[in-house]
Amino acid sequence: MSTNPEVAPITFYRPNYHVKTPFMRSPEYVQMSTAAAITLGLIPGHMHRTGCTHCLNLLVTYKEGCRANCAYCGLARHREESRDYADRNFIRVDWPAVRYDEVIERMSTGVDHNAFQRMCISMITHPDSDADTMVLLKRWVAEVPHVPVSILSNPTTMERADLVALRDAGADIFTVALDAVTPEIFDRTRGKGVDSPHKWDKYWQAIEWAAEVFGPEKFGAHLICGMGETEKEILEAAQRITDLGGHNHMFAFFPERGSLMEDWDPVPRDQWRRVQLARFIIDYGGGRIDNMCFDEQGAVVDFGLGMDELDALIRSGKPFQTSGCPGRNDEEVSACNRPYGDSTPSDIRSFPFALNARDVAIVRRQMAGEDVGTL
Questions:
Q1: Residues 269, 271, 272, 277: is their CA dihedral positive or negative?
Q2: What is the total count of domains within the chain?
Q3: For position 128, which CATH number holds?
Q4: Distance of CA 94 to the CA centre of its chain
Q5: What is the mean pLDDT of the segment spanning 299-320?
Q6: Is 142 a domain residue?
């Protein structure tokens, strides 16, 4: 692998290189999370307390970038002043670009088959994104059939027939990044309030299409906690998705450098831990929001479980691990563990590994309102 961007051919680009992105377009190229690049052996490094990520997160990429303008996103259109689109950070980390040929080759011959339990293609708002996602999907299914594929969709550019086509081409799970959980917050952060094309009704329509086309347990939605909603509001959205047959993939809001919301505070720890716990109860614990109680500010004060059952759930640590698409082993724990995608190692919000007794003790203190990090 050359470390000089003037030398051709170049198969991999690190984010701090002065690269020319017009030549780095999907489907020939994809971007991937730093954790995925380390796990794939493309760059050296290691993750705090975890050896790898179990989901190969890929992102379609174009010089023109994403045409949406979401207020919290590192890929938003307003960042066009950045010289190179592929240099932009996304969910806290860099997303280096690589030839898709090299990804396929490494997955076919050079990577432990147990390293990745899932691959995810993330779409963006771009005229070529839908077609290129299909190209990437079909090739993956043909050449790396042992690793199932999730699609992180762009509902704004899709119709129901597109979901059917993705399913028939081999996509295993379909997800929608709803992110904002009320119409008002969605409009303010993702819609006309920031001159962006996304619409609340279209996103929910895509979730309902996914329930019909992919079926129960085969679709999900991303929800971001801490963008101005109450705990009750985000859990109402989670319950709605669960009632449709889907799962909820929770993210703690963390201000993205260069985004329109970079000056916002991260979600308070106690709020986040309550929402994580309640989400897990809704998704996997057989509970419902109807059995939970909330105070006047919409914060959870009763999770609807007996004390022994609730304590056992907290002690397991599972509710506080990263939530996302499942792997081949434990359906309650995400294969998409996204190491440090919504926090730093010193203040872990979504644990990308199983919690030990000390981790659980810290979580309990955070839920009690103590100002304590994880290091």
A1: positive
A2: 1
A3: 3.20.20.70
A4: 14
A5: 97
A6: yes
